[in-house]
Specification:
This protein is mainly alpha-helical. It has one domain. The protein is built from five helices and two strands; from the N terminus they run αααααββ. A two-stranded antiparallel ribbon has the order 1-2. Helix 2 packs antiparallel against helix 5 and helix 4 packs antiparallel against helix 5. The longest helix is centred in the last third of the chain and has 40 residues. The radius of gyration is 27 Å and the shape is elongated.
């Protein structure tokens, strides 16, 4: 129930209309040239588009962000979890059908002479639990795909230039004569 609510909330958020009130006019006076990474101009709808595309077709948001190397990872994760879901479901059904046949009086199931009735019940419970965990992992991979596309679209608009740096620093404490360690944040304004 919670997963369905979360999916509906994410889907409705992605379908938000693009009205005049949603956009913020920005004025670009001067573009700073830097040798390092230059951010894309701010587009408030880019993260929502990337998340929406990934929700429609897994990996499409990564293609929208031009992170093509992540698409095989998305499909490998989803494929692996789906494989385990179907495998565990098949084994659960095998154990359940064998147990139902034994209750009906038949003695020709594939586990006859190998497993007892209690072992069949225990196997059903185990494979049903594994199947349910695999389903949760599949849903988690799907949501992770959407979150990855959204976060990468946000970070694509973040400027990383040489003007901003975070470095470790060593500071002399003059009251007791010992060194203190910390971080210093530098911002160069031209």
């Amino acid at each position: 129930m919670k997963v369905a609510f979360l999916f509906i909330a994410v889907f409705c958020f992605c379908l938000k209309s693009n009205s005049q009130n949603d956009t913020i006019p920005l004025k670009y006076d001067k573009v700073v040239e830097s040798k390092s990474f230059q951010a894309n101009p701010y587009d408030a709808n880019a993260p929502a588009k990337a998340a929406f595309y990934s929700a429609i077709l897994p990996g499409l948001g990564q293609a929208y962000n031009k992170s093509y190397w992540k698409i095989p990872l998305v499909y490998a994760g989803l494929g692996t979890t789906l494989f385990f879901y179907f495998d565990n479901n098949s084994r659960y059904l095998d154990y359940r059908n064998a147990y139902k046949r034994r209750l009906a009086g038949y003695e020709d199931d594939e586990f006859f002479g190998i497993l007892t009735d209690e072992n069949l019940i225990r196997g059903q419970k185990q494979f049903r639990e594994f199947r349910d965990i695999s389903l949760l992992l599949t849903i988690g991979m799907y949501i992770l795909n959407i979150i990855d596309a959204n976060v990468e679209a946000h970070l694509d608009q973040f400027s990383i230039t040489e003007d901003l740096s975070l470095r470790p620093s060593q500071i002399q404490n003059y009251s007791n004569g010992q060194n203190s360690f910390g971080l210093s944040l530098s911002l160069k304004i031209k």
